[in-house]
Amino acid sequence: MTAIATVQNHIKFTFPAMSENESLARTVVAAFVMSLDPMLDELNDLKTAVSEAVTNAIIHGYDERNSGMIDLEAELDGRTVFIRITDYGRGIHDLWQARQPMYTSKPDLERPGMGFTMMEHLMDEVTVQSVAGRGTTIGLRKTISPVDMRWH
User: What is the pLDDT of residue 6?
Assistant: First the structure.
């Protein structure tokens, strides 16, 4: 049996932490994974998870001040996509509490506090690294199903 070579590709994209750039981040990730021919629901899962991570960076990391930058990195390894979204804002003071369903540090914004829960539901793996006063990195991993295995 011969080994199948894996696709290796990597991008890094830096953009201002402005709400109008959330859709840009979604589009960049969607375009990046198109070589894997993802199913529509897989593509939507990736776009939604990226939206949640970027929105959290803008709203919580930078307090919607439009004053910081967000790094989005994505890597393909075979059929697996790894995404890292990093802000350099205020960080998460209590990571355990922030990952609880329905928790929000901004109840006045009437947001449901389901960002981490949604990301965890849609991705194969979600990691969070945060340092108070220095920022947060959200790691997302999802394996795209092989085309020949979809209809069996």
Answer: 57
In DSSP terms, which residues pair with 75 in a beta bridge?
10, 82
Q: Under 8 Å CB-to-CB from 104, ≥6 apart: which residues?
A: 111, 112, 113
Question: Which listed CATH number (3.40.50.2300, 3.30.565.10, 1.10.287.110, 3.40.220.10) goes with 8-149?
Answer: 3.30.565.10
Encoding tokens for residue 6?
């894996």
What confidence score (pLDDT) does residue 1 get?
44
Look up the pTM and report it: 0.83
Give CA angle at 13 (40, 29), nearest 5°.
5
Cβ proximity of 130 and 137 under 8 Å = yes
d(CA 56, CA 147): 33
The residue extents of the domains of the chain are: 8-149
On whether the CB atoms of residues 88 and 134 are closer than 8 A, the answer is: yes
Residues tagged active-site: 52, 56, 111
pLDDT value at residue 147:
75
